[in-house]
Amino acid sequence: MSQPSLSSKHSLEDRIAEHAQHLGFDAIGFCQANLDPSIEEGLKAFVGAGYHGTMEWMETRIEQRAQPTVLWPEVRSVVSLGLSYAPDHDPREALSKTDQGLISVYARNRDYHDVIKGMLKHLAQFMVRMGGDGTQVKVFVDTAPVSERALAEKAHLGWQGKHTCLVSRTHGSWMLLGEIYTTLDLTPSRPQGGGCGSCSRCLTACPTNAFIGPYRMDARRCISYLTIEHKGPIPHDLRPLMGNRIYGCDDCLSACPWNRFAETGHHIKLQAREDLTAPKLAELATLDDPAFRRVFSGSPIKRIGRNRFVRNVLIAIGNSADQHLIPTAQALRADPDPDIAETATWATTRLTQPHSSDLLE
User: Fold this and answer.
1) 221 known ligand binder
2) 3-state DSSP call for residue 140?
3) Predicted confidence (pLDDT) per residue in 139-159, tens digit
4) So where does [4Fe-4S] cluster 2 get bound (predicted)?
5) 127 HSE (CA, 13 A, CB side)
6) CA atoms in the 13 A half-sphere facing the CB of 337
């Protein structure tokens, strides 16, 4: 676990770190509640260039995301926490199993937002007890305007990799983040070292060339964005590049050489469900709304809804080159959802006429 800079073995920071470890967190760091002005400049440039695609929520509250004190003026310190979800294998091995859907590692069981928020609340209550009268706290897990990676980097949990995600010396690229804002004055953590150097494996690993350069991404080309956040039909030129990825993409994370130091994530609620490790595309495509909700109850996948998910499945079917999936795609051409119907037609044509399907408008 990452360690703060402590002057006493029994300091408040020590006690918080020990309790965080007891709750199951893998990393913890402390920092002052301020960020460099370059964070706001970068966010405005990202949105101004349109790289955020249909994520309209990024256009609002930029100032609050860029500076903790704008979101909550009373905050003095931030506790940044990490939970490892490192897999026991390279997820890219499943790319060759074209009759199966590939789901991002973090999404193969419970919704991590719920898992981490529960842990954060317990730690926050502990901090209030230890901090005494007047101590205030707020907890966040990717559901508020908070610059998680920037705060984690300032708290020395790791550094922002060239793939724009956090990289840890201990856990590689496989770490989920959460934060506790507090009115306590906490001693900042010590630097841990580490960096990307000249390595660019994550950039070249991207199947859709979503990276404009190191530390810069056009989300509109990112498969994670396309399968989770993007509203409407996915651009035709990107579909063949998506392979069988139906929810998220781990390619740039998997390519990071720092992962060789990562131990397999141990949190039981993040261990992959067997039915989501290698799900059959033919079965997923037949899910109606009630069945989708039942299968993905408690999963982050439920958030995108049945229509967007089946749209993704149909793209994987179109890329499968599996003639046995033609009837599955054909059956969805009459789906009430126009995006599903259009994608089903694309998938059917790609399977039956592979040289003409990409000409469809």
Assistant:
1) no
2) strand
3) 999 889 999 999 999 999 999
4) 206, 222, 249, 252
5) 27
6) 19
Q: How far apart are CA 321 and CA 261, in angstroms?
A: 37
Q: Residue with structure tokens 């730690």? A: 123
Positions marked catalytic = 142
Share of the chain above pLDDT 70, in %: 96
Q: What are the tens digits of pLDDT across the range 200-249?
A: 999 999 999 999 999 999 999 999 999 999 999 999 999 999 999 999 99
Q: What is the per-residue DSSP string for 202-217?
A: HHHH-TT--EEETTEE
pTM value is 0.93
C-alpha distances out from residue 89 to 82, 259, 272, Å = 20, 11, 12
All residues at 6 or more sequence positions from 183 whose CB lies less than 8 Å from its CB, including other chains:
74, 75, 76, 134, 135, 136, 137
Please check whether residue 65 is in contact with residue 142, taking contact to mean a CB–CB distance below 8 angstroms: no
Q: Give residues with Cβ within 8 angstroms of 205, minimum separation 6.
A: 251, 252, 254, 255
Q: Is 31 annotated as a binding residue?
A: no
Q: First and final CA of the chain: distance in angstroms?
A: 51
Q: Which is higher by pLDDT, 6 or 161?
A: 161
Per-residue pLDDT, 8:
46
Rounded Cα gap, residues 265 and 267, in angstroms: 6
